[in-house]
Design goal:
Elements (H helix, E strand, L loop, with lengths): L1 H10 L6 H21 L1 E5 L2 E5 L1 H4 L5 H6 L2 H21 L4 H32 L4 H12 L3 H11 L1 H4 L5 H16 L9 H18 L5 H23 L21 H24 L3 H12 L1 H26 L14 H30 L9 H10 L1
Antiparallel strand pairs: 1-2
Length: 388
């Protein structure tokens, strides 16, 4: 382990901003843990359905405030893309080459997920699995992919986005919500916010890359404006308190993004900017940096396979429970309707983590292009950390 830590630290370019990698890792892991906590697979009459504890336990809502971290991912994405594009231009690298490298890291692992689950879906249909169960499992796998499409589109538009101030897309979100909720406008208009809403933190990231903001001062401003704005929108205007979708709710803050989701995201971005300095100091420790670097090397694999890991544990657990006569296992197959379910669910999180590690071990090579750090290939190791 010490040798691995030394190799990762030696392979890291001296000028790399390690805090950005830490923020990206925190954002991805936040989404993963959030999904594992607010998604329950329950069985009824031989079929599986998704049940959210948020619909039965409103007091569980603060979980969505902690683990809905997509705004931080878009903030870091904008920062890295704008800086990378500027560096590519300085080296004489064309836009198409730069974009192909950026998007290749995203879409190679996506193609593998789609191929594996297409085969799994065919096998389930031919094996007589109820269509409702097939639909439920497929939706859990595919639903997180929407944000990768938005992220890819914003990445492709980076040469234009760097010229846009974050206040412009924020104004679009504000006007769309006023028309939707204030004047009874059409519901489809809200889907404009899928682009505009996530463009706000992405533009903030590109502004950060251009030196247009100071981390600590901007972080304070975003916190002291974003937090009160979100509270007022929830308490006085009537936006949902949950920052993720709740089955059966009339309005979702996430599908499509609302003004409350955007102001909440700005508060998160403010917290992230305030963390940059302490993270840079902490990540000088080789062991801590090695952990962050290893998460980033497989970040997309972790994101794409975390639902599969949860479903595999759930389905295997149900099979084992039926074979041993124990039936549905608490926190895994039972309806999330009480605090005992939450405690039981916490106990299953390490099991989900082990299943996810197995998925990462199998599929990470598709994200990194098959390169693995080794003693004999130190330049390759350096290139792999740079690509992450």
């Amino acid at each position: 382990m010490r040798d691995l830590v030394r190799r990762v630290d030696a392979a890291t370019p001296p000028g790399r901003d390690r805090a950005l990698d830490a923020l990206r890792a925190l954002a991805v892991l936040g989404v993963v843990l959030g999904h594992w906590l607010v998604t329950a697979l329950t069985s009824d009459s031989g079929t599986f359905q998704v049940v959210s504890p948020l619909s039965r336990m409103p007091e569980f809502t603060p979980v969505s405030w902690v683990f809905q971290t997509l705004a931080v991912f878009f903030l870091v994405g904008g920062r890295v893309a704008a800086a990378g594009l500027a560096g590519a231009r300085a080296r004489g690298t064309g836009y198409r080459v730069w974009l192909a490298v950026r998007l290749g890291r995203l879409f190679r692992p996506v193609a593998v997920v789609l191929a594996v689950w297409s085969a799994a879906t065919l096998a389930m249909v031919l094996g007589g699995v109820p269509w409702e169960t097939v639909h439920t499992l497929g939706r859990l796998v595919l639903s997180p992919l929407w944000f990768l499409g938005v992220f890819a589109a914003l990445t492709a538009a980076t040469p234009l986005v760097v010229k846009v101030h974050p206040l412009w897309p924020l104004a679009v979100v504000l006007h769309v919500d006023v028309i939707r909720f204030g004047f009874g406008g059409p519901g489809w208009l809200g889907w404009t916010n899928v682009a505009a809403g996530w463009l706000v933190p992405y533009c903030l990231g590109t502004l950060w890359a251009r030196g247009g903001i100071r981390e600590r001062s901007a972080g304070r401003v975003l916190m002291v404006t974003g937090v009160p704005a979100t509270v007022l929108l929830i308490a006085l205007v009537g936006y949902p308190a949950s920052m993720v979708g709740v089955p059966g709710a009339a309005v979702s803050n996430l599908a499509p993004p609302t003004l409350a989701a955007v102001t909440f995201g700005l508060a998160q971005c403010g917290a992230a900017l305030l963390l940059v300095g302490p993270l840079r100091r902490s990540l000088r420790r080789p062991a801590l940096w090695a952990a962050v670097a290893l998460v980033n090397l497989g970040a997309m694999t972790v994101f794409l396979w975390h639902q599969t890991a949860m479903m595999a544990v759930t389905l295997l657990g149900r099979l084992a429970g039926d074979l041993t006569g124990h039936g549905p296992l608490p926190g895994l197959h039972t309806v999330p309707d009480g605090h005992s379910w939450v405690l039981a669910r916490m106990g299953w999180l390490p099991v989900f983590g082990l299943a996810l590690l197995a998925c990462v071990a199998v599929f990470r090579a598709y994200e990194t292009g098959g390169r693995r750090p080794s003693r004999s290939r130190r330049p390759a190791a350096r290139k792999q950390v740079q690509r992450a």
